[in-house]
## 1
Amino acid sequence: MDRVQATTFAITGPQRLASDASTFNQWLAAKRTNDAQLQRMLVCRFSPEYRTAFDAWLKTAPFTTPSAPPGPAYMPEYHNPQLEQAAHLNEEAAAAEEKGTHARHTAEEYLGAAVLFALVLFLVAVSQRFRLWGVRIAAIALAVGLLGYAL
């Protein structure tokens, strides 16, 4: 279930960034035409995380400083909660998968031992049906050998 949720977040995270980037491109066009009302409206449409990075980006004087980051998504203040959640859920899923693999290995060992012990009991029971002592001893010896291997 964690993998499914992680995949969902891994898809919605880039979609959210693409939406913010598209809105940012429209904001740049509105800035170029000096449409302050459209600029304010577009800024209100940013996601909260992108808005924080946008405000920090504006403080770098990006239109006059050549070393300024190319956009808010490149700012250290920007983080995408969906991508972070996807990474977290993937880590949880990997841990659960590891536990499951260990449990399967334990179950396989238990099943193998149970089959060997059942075979030992079967050989001991069958050995009592034989009339020849040599066959009885051979069946019991085989049972003892399997018991030793199982232990």
## 2
Amino acid sequence: MRDTEKSLAYGGQAVLEGIMMRSNTHMVISIRKKNGEILTTSKEIPAISRKSCLLRLPFIRGIPALFETLYLGFKSLFYSANIVIEEEKVKFSHKEVFLTFVLILGFSSFFIVSPLLLTNFFSITGLIFNIVEALLRITFFLVFLMSVSLWKEYRRVLQYHGAEHKAINAYEAGATLNLIEVKRHSRLHPRCGTSFLVVLMSLSILLFSIIPNQTFLERLAYRLVLIPIISAISYEILRFSGKHRNSKIIRAIVIPGLGLQHLTTKEPDDDMIMVALEALTEVDKQTQKQRINVS
């Protein structure tokens, strides 16, 4: 088993025909090109949050981490899309950054506002109102995940997602990073973004249920304003679950998130796992080099 803090610093995301792996200091994107070659690019991540003691504090660090993760995720997708269509000279503009946050806001607002609007049509109040709203939000979320998982054109992305999880699981278990060893590991991972969303929704339901009755606009304001706070708490829960993943209690808590990953991941083929290994090996090399230079 590798050092817990160091291994938990690695994460990733599936992109078009490839995988993005990242640490606290570097981001690596590996893409399988049409000719079978793996194209790998590495970039140092700006040290904005790392240089600020305030932004590294528990229950605060989750907020910049969320926006950083979403921004780097969209940036990686844009890059992979350009590689797939064989336009490898990519320059990310301020417009793309703006687009990223607009999409984030729109996606979040849909799952927050739509269930609230529908529930508001019923003549119910108090705890019953919150229960109905929660059930609608969960239904919307499940329908969305099922729709994505059934989308044939998106299946390869879900397979790359599974490959990313297998590689990270193997790394955190201290296994030898080769194809045979990595294939033995699970495609499910407790710190996945799917698990984060499950924790986020669960906390939202719990918190909103204890807030006194309000008007529609007051309810909406609460749900929007509390997003960063709930996200920060969810981030800490996932970090804690990662450090104590062998605990029976933690295993029970993460079951819903792992269950939903059967929809958001698929079993990868060998070529996909090799792409994940390429990305993980490179990000580990760059991160270790950075640590040596700093020390």
## 3
Amino acid sequence: MPKKKTIKKTPAKKGFIQKNKAILMMLAVAFFFLLAGSIFFIYHNAFKSNLRFKKPTEFVYIRSNFKFDDVVRYLSSEGLLESEDTFRWMADFMGYTHAIKPGRYKIKPGMSNRELIALLQSGQQEPVRLTFKSIRTRHELASKVSKYLETDSTSIIRYMDSEEFQKTYGLNAENALSLIMPNTYEFYWNTSAEGFMKKMAGYYQDFWDNKRKTQAQKLGLRPDQISVIASIVQQESNKKDEWPTIAGVYLNRLNCGMKLQADPTVKFALGNFGLRRILKEHLSVDSPYNTYKYEGLPPGPIYMANSSCIDAVLEASQHEFIYFCARPDRSGYHDFAKTYSEHLANAAKYHRELNRRGI
């Protein structure tokens, strides 16, 4: 058999192999450091916490007209970002720069850029809880809403004044407050003036079901007119058990063509809600809300009446009382009368007590 030839490695070949091994080793080391650097860069930009907190719970408010640069400026001005550059890089990587979603977002300590941007991209807002009570005018309403929602008070008033509002809800600027009932509601912070009214109208329509509408029709009144009467009744007395009786008095006056002569409407006309005693000089104020001067109902509610008082008007007591006057015993209750002479006697006792107390 022929002998196999053995190939001897020359010194040149050995050197070439060793050199290649060294290069490969250097490339491997370089790749390792490059990979490690990339991992660190991605971690630093994506997963490392990038938020500063001034208090345990923070909210960020992304306005409806914000572009991406506005978002960055806002977060920086609030002192929330540790690094603006890493936030920008991650936002671009995640495609947030052209997909801004307005709203109120609850952020948490330790959130990374990735977590923050994912939250802002999701549109999952933290709702605002808004409680309405003791509101007398639409300007008060607009002012309160603007403190909790993105829309401003001017936009709300302008919408109430608009033809669109009147056509949509059958109400005007004067009686628009009847659309709102005291309660606690949840809204998204970026709700517009139109969106706010639309949501409140939904609750209003739920309240005015067929039963209540039928009750109002039997009284010959619209739901907004019932709200006007309820606003007066609720300002006359804080005794709920008296509300149906007082409501009956005002319905009796309306039915016989008598002026309502309601003291709370005079306070409203004067804009002096803390007035403790109505004097003769007050009764001459020239305002459609002065029910001593003008017949019928005032143009709109003088107070945001609650549902219990509206129901008290719908279920008003049937009686012959035309007059009522506060009792002098400070109980908060009233004395009711069928005749003017009876009323004068009750009023004299009450006025003597006011004089004695220096009111």
## 4
Amino acid sequence: MYAQDLPLDAFDLAPETVRARFVWAERQGVPRWLWPEVQPGDWIATLTRIEAILRAVLTGEEAPPELDCDPATLEVAAYTSGTGPLLGSWLEQGRIAAGSCAPLLAFHLRHNRLRMQRLTAHAASLSRAFGVAGTAPVIVKGMHTAHAYFPEPGTRPVSDIDMVITADRLPEAERVLQDQGYAPGEIVLGPPRQQEWRAAAPPQLPRTLRFVHHDDPWAIDVQSSFDRRFASGGATVRMGGAAGEAPWPVDGSARVLGQPWLLLYLAVHASNGFETLNLLRLTEMALVARTDSAAGRLDWDAFMAAAQGSDALALIYPSLFLCEALAPGTIPGEVRQASRRGVSPSARRFVEGLSPATAHRLLRPSRAEKFLWSPSPAARRAQILRELLPREARSLGDLARIYHRRAWGLARGTLPRSTPQRGNRT
């Protein structure tokens, strides 16, 4: 099935095949589930195996379990969880064993190494251009942690290059982006307000649905603040105290978040949407928290103060609880308990009924999940109103497409929690 000497395009799909798979998934009422050949129960069982291996390596167990299972199911589980390249790296280092699935994981790593080399070069070039213009962006999420916390950049897949540029510097930043050959794209009003910028004639669809392809679509995602709205009618986390405190490891023209804001930012993003709360995000949190705690860079009292001051402490309970479940000994008990106290009983039951492997909700959402962050009647009414007239619909055509997708979900009994938010992607 896989071999090291296979060409990089060995598993490429024709664009019409990819489109047909998305249409099929939408008509099934589960628009994120694109693999009719894989049984969801088998997918979850394989994710649970991956979870056990991640836990073993993160906590230093001497003999991680072997990851030898059905290759077709592992392919989807490694892809959707975002962990394929990391597992491939650990396999290469001899830290884990994967039996007949070893070539599959090596292919995941091979592609993502090439992808991250390419995206890092684009980010560095743009960072230097911003520096010349006197506009220093803050590099956030994967393009930061890939270079600072993962074994190598190629082990952390990213879909976008995420940058935060304050609103007063946006006009200058947009001029730089245009000068560098990027074209403006979709705007999400947020908060935060964010706009994607794409290079000329980029691929619009994934090249394959088996792994992160080196030539899959990507964009520069420019955000105007570190704030984040939870759900359609939920609270907004306001991280006004966050700022770029250290140079980006690749190019010092850009900055990155320091602690405690780095971990808080990752926890907020991981908790805000179970449709993207995969094993990679939890692993990322564990790597950051364990590395910086050991180095004395992460003060947990400062973390709780920042979370409380941002109105985020209760909202990040899902990622704190699940990160600790994945890598015991990562999140102190007093931090988890302080977060838990602000969570409604129904939300506690929902979160604590999940495992790191089952938190990622690609399939049928539950009613409890839908209104998790809108516990009051007023908040639920606000969420329902926003979903009836979503802000993402800027034209009648947009609204028609959203309602078409919802109609299939209603017919299949799988209506999504809300309109997907771009800022929540990996």
